[in-house]
Amino acid sequence: MILRFDDFELDEELFELRRRGEPLPVQRRVLETLFYLVRHRGRLVTREELVAGPWAGTAVTDSAITQAIKHARMALANHGSDEQSVIRTVRGKGVRFVAEVVEEPELRHAPHKTSDAARDQPAAFVGRDEEMTRFREHLEAAVAGAGRSILVGGEAGIGKTALVDRAAREAAGLGMRLLRGRAWKGGDTPAFWPWVEAARGLLESADFQRLGRPVPGSTDWLDLGPGRSKDDPGPDEASDLRLDAKHARLLLFDSITRFFLWVASDAPLLIVLEDLHAADGDSLAAWRFLIPRIRDARLLLIGTFRPQGGRIQDFVGDRPDVDWISLGGLGPKEVEQLVRITARSRFTSDAAARIHAISGGNPFIVRELAAGLRASDEAAGADSPPMAWRTSLDRRISGLPHESASLLESACVVGMDFDVSLVAR
After folding, report:
1. Core vs surface per residue 125-140: b (16+ CB within 10 A) or e
2. I need a surface site. Which of 169, 285, 397, 419 has the fewest CB within 10 A?
3. Do 323 and 149 form a contact (C-beta atoms < 8 A)?
């Protein structure tokens, strides 16, 4: 059975969690806990039930279960969304899995990353020809030993992950190794989390054993035991040497850099870190530290972020060796193509034009509205917001200050085009 929710799917037969078809590295006990919560979704699951279920036969502490829930949330972090949006804590009682789940029978097929047919599905990617040309140039340069850095910015749903996924598939065709990590805005997120997640993708794989060489430098940054937080200055060795926090951080950045350069010395390497708008300051500073040090390496560094707040821009600055890619909405012809693919027999040019006007070319909104076309009559499908879109909007609006939300509510009543002074009244 396949259990689908948001961008994710749990495969019971293969015992794996995938995001947009790509398997995610998740510890076995965390995955067992997640499976249990999804199977018992919508209701309260107590600690005692978890102990008797996925943790049966194991000596377990409250801290161990808390850590498992935290890591499950990290794996499911969706574009920096609220940590309670999928697994909700009921204080003093337990947790509930609250996302909508669709169950589908397993149709035996090869995993996405090794399936040529799956890689070529047109519904997954439309347009972005100019951006893909730039990606190909950077990929080829990295394979030749000229390391590069790319930062892809755009609003939620604009297609950052889809663009990076397509680049990753082309990188695989060039023989590049792929490591991925994602930032998470939970308050207790360990320091350097996206870098740690990317590194663990290799350390927990059979590919790491094939390297057969000692890891250079310190690996303390991979040790995220109790007590480590995003405010820690660096590894224990630095403290023993009585170095100040600034020097300790530099040693830590150097260790991270040496690790990934070591990996790239074996085979060309693509590192993808997503949702950097939610990253801690140390993770962003490490990115800045790496940029000039990968120029002669077979390494391409790609990050995605939402531009609100400008945090990543402040850390990286206006460097000539960083390619900034800003994604806007799809054009009318690209929207028409995406609607045709998604709506199938319900497609009409008029419906596609309305969807483009409503969505502004945002691929996520386009797909949701086009899916409404396929599931209902054309008029309702093209003009009424589907549940998934409304849920996404609710999450984004709920994070706004009260004054901003009130202003947005007034603007929605006035209409698409309005005078600021009118809304102010």
Report:
1. bbbbeebeeebeebbe
2. 419
3. yes
Residues contacting residue 53 through CB under 8 Å, at least 6 positions apart: 36
Listed in sequence order, the residues at least 6 apart from 271 whose beta carbon sits closer than 8 Å to its beta carbon are 179, 180, 181, 198, 260, 299, 300, 301, 302
For 69-88, write each residue's pLDDT tens digit.
888 888 887 544 456 778 88
∠ CA 25-118-153, nearest 5°, is 65
Please name which of 187, 208, 153 lies closest in space to residue 74, comparing C-alpha atoms: 187
Q: What are the strands, taking DSSP E only, across 327-371?
A: none
Q: Which residue bears the tokens 């909508």?
A: 100
Amino acid at 106: E
| End-to-end Cα, the chain, rounded Å | 54
Q: Could you read off the pLDDT of 237-252 as tens digits, one per residue?
A: 434 434 466 677 888 8
pLDDT above 80 for 57: no
Name the strands in the sheet holding 22-23, side by side, starting at the edge strand that comes first in the sequence.
Answer: 22-23, 16-19, 8-11, 2-5, 102-104
DSSP 8-state assignment for residue 159:
S
Q: Please give the C-alpha separations between residue 392 and each of 6, 291, 352, 398, in angstroms, as whole numbers.
A: 10, 34, 22, 10
Tell me the per-residue pLDDT of 132-187, one tens digit each, with 9 for 90 and over: 999 999 999 999 999 999 999 998 889 898 899 889 889 988 999 999 888 876 65
Q: Identify the helix (H) or strand (E) that includes residue 18.
A: strand 16-19
Alpha carbons 165 and 163: distance in angstroms, whole number: 5
